[in-house]
Amino acid sequence: CSGDNTGGRVGSSAKMDKFTVRHTMKLRRDAMSRDEVLRLSRAIEDRLFACKDFLDCQDVMFYLSFGNEVRTDEMIARSLKDHKRVYVPRLVMAERRMEACEVTDINQEFDLGFYDIREPSQVSSKVVSPSRIDAVIAPGLAFDHSGKRIGFGGGYYDKFLKQLPEKSFRLALAYGFQIMDSVPQDPWDERVQKIFSENDTINC
């Protein structure tokens, strides 16, 4: 999975580089057909569920996919069927942070959050400490083979990943074209340890 080679050389600063990478990846992802999203997401799911480190985890946190992101609904349903405890994020905008909420059914009702991303209801969801989580599956717009990640710019996942126990796995799902030779990083950015694409499982 060689990926695109657009990172690190575009623009005059890391901030401009990130902006350019985000813009390029959003355009490419938005151009995908629904069939392509479903087909590639299934292949990525198969790679994730073939990973022993993930299979051994009992408490896992997924993102709730939106748009043409790698789909997680089927992965969440499969994890629940495998008797894992599953959590998804909810943003606490006033405090610029993210919390983990338990879900027991992917077909339960969700609220639409600040970015029009599904979130568990404020009324009925149980919030858990990051210390309980064995693995976080993080979203992103671009990654490289060393585990560097470019998200959407809010910093919510970077802050959350810093709170995880050292033994917890930091995992990511990505289409092959989202994996670049190198992506720009800031000092506060957190890396992931494994990336699952339709083509490969990358150990970072």
Q: Can you walk me through this structure?
A:
With 204 residues, the protein is α/β, with parallel strands linked by helices. The chain is 25% helix and 23% strand. It has five helices and 13 strands. The protein has an eight-stranded mixed sheet with strand order 6-3-2-1-7-10-12-13. A three-stranded mixed sheet has the order 9-8-11, covered by helices on one side. A two-stranded antiparallel sheet has the order 4-5. The model is unreliable at 1-13 (pLDDT under 50).
Q: Helices and strands, in N-to-C order?
A: HHHEHEEEEEEEEHEEEE
> How many distinct beta strands?
13
Largest sheet, if any?
Answer: 8 strands, mixed
Strand order of the largest sheet: 6-3-2-1-7-10-12-13
Principal-axis shape equals: globular
| End-to-end distance | 13 Å
Class per helix and strand makeup: alpha/beta
Overall pLDDT metric: 89
Strand content: 15-25%
Can you tell me the residue ranges where pLDDT is under 50 for at least 5 consecutive residues? 1-13
Work out the helicity level: 25-40%
Number of helices: 5
Quaternary state of the chains: single chain
Rg value: 16 Å
Outline of this structure?
The chain has 204 residues and is an alpha/beta fold. 25% of the residues lie in helices and 23% in strands. The chain has 5 helices and 13 strands.
Features:
204 residues, alpha/beta, three-stranded mixed sheet, disordered N terminus
SSE topology:
Layout: H1 14-30, H2 34-48, H3 52-55, E1 59-61, H4 73-81, E2 85-92, E3 97-103, E4 111-112, E5 118-119, E6 127-128, E7 135-138, E8 142-144, E9 149-150, H5 156-162, E10 169-173, E11 179-180, E12 194-196, E13 201-203
Parallel strand pairs: 1-2, 1-7, 7-10, 8-11, 10-12
Antiparallel strand pairs: 2-3, 3-6, 4-5, 8-9, 12-13
